[in-house]
Amino acid sequence: MSFRSGRPRARGLGVRTALALSGLAALSGCGWFSSSPAEPAAASAETCPTAAILKPLSQTAVFAPGAPRQPTGVAFYGILSEVESKCTRSGDAVLVALDTVIIGERGPAAGAATGVDLQYFIAATGPDQTILSKRTLPVQIAIPAGTRRAGITDHIEEWVSLGGRSPADVNVVLGFQQTPEVVQFYKNFRGR
Fold first, then answer.
1. pLDDT of 67-91, one tens digit each?
2. Do the Cβ atoms of 83 and 36 come closer than 8 Å?
3. How far apart, in whole angstroms, are the C-alpha atoms of residue 140 and residue 115?
4. What integer is the mean pLDDT of 11-16?
5. CA–CA separation, 45 vs 58, rounded Å?
6. Burial class of residue 53 (count of CB atoms within 10 Å of its CB; 0-12, 13-18, 19+)
7. Domain residue spans of the chain
8. Rounded distance, CA 94 to CA 61, Å?
9. Who's near 23: CB < 8 A, 6+ residues apart?
10. Residue 164, pLDDT score
11. Per-residue pLDDT reduced to its tens digit, 91-110
12. What's the CA dihedral at 121, 162, 55, 44 to 10 degrees?
């Protein structure tokens, strides 16, 4: 897949208090495909791969330096809020355009920090959930002083090689790239 990212668009969001994560799944990665047809043809909705945020990986925590790995040590939370997709098919590949809403929220240990750096991934999976490709993407969310939450819409376009599969047999999944300490945090603290 070839990777193109548009500029994130600022998006104001109201305060919500619910953050819960019930479990974490692990994904192993591999490189994106490099098929890039020159003249794609428009595809109907039924010829697009399904795009979805993996609920167990829809939230993450960023700890303040030296802070305990518990709720009081969280500087920021990250939330993958929603994803919208459109696609264009060309031969045995589909160009998938994703607009993903990503939210940053201050935690108790944020202090005077005015932003957070997060990493999320996009992966293409086959019908048996085999990972066909995966890419990790960095995002930065500015959270102005005096504001609890802010968000962006990250626009990404990816070519997905179908490898002879029907687009209905391919899924595009998104989630936060979790560190071992974040996985352990959510095992110990299942909410805030």
1. 999 999 999 999 999 999 999 998 8
2. no
3. 7
4. 34
5. 25
6. buried
7. 3-13+33-181
8. 33
9. 56, 186
10. 87
11. 889 999 999 999 999 999 99
12. 110
Please, are residues 138 and 119 in contact by the beta-carbon 8 Å criterion?
yes
Q: 6 to each of 110, 163, 174, how far by Cα in Å? A: 28, 27, 17
- Within 13 A of 44's CA, how many CA atoms are on the CB side? 2
User: Does residue 16 have a pLDDT over 70?
Assistant: no
Specify burial of residue 12 (Cβ count, 10 A radius: 0-12, 13-18, 19+).
exposed
Whole-prediction pTM value?
0.73
In the structure encoding, which two tokens stand for residue 137, read together?
Answer: 């993407």
Question: Hey, what are 171's tokens?
Answer: 């899924």
Length reported for the chain = 192
Q: Which residues contact 126 (CB under 8 A, 6 or more apart)?
A: 132, 165, 169, 170
Q: Is residue 36 very low, low, confident or very high in pLDDT (cuts 50, 70, 90)? A: very low
Range list of H helices, 45-141: none
Q: Tell me the C-alpha distance between 150 and 148, whole Å.
A: 7
| Position 7 pLDDT exceeds 80 | no
Burial of 107 (0-12, 13-18, 19+ CB in 10 A): buried
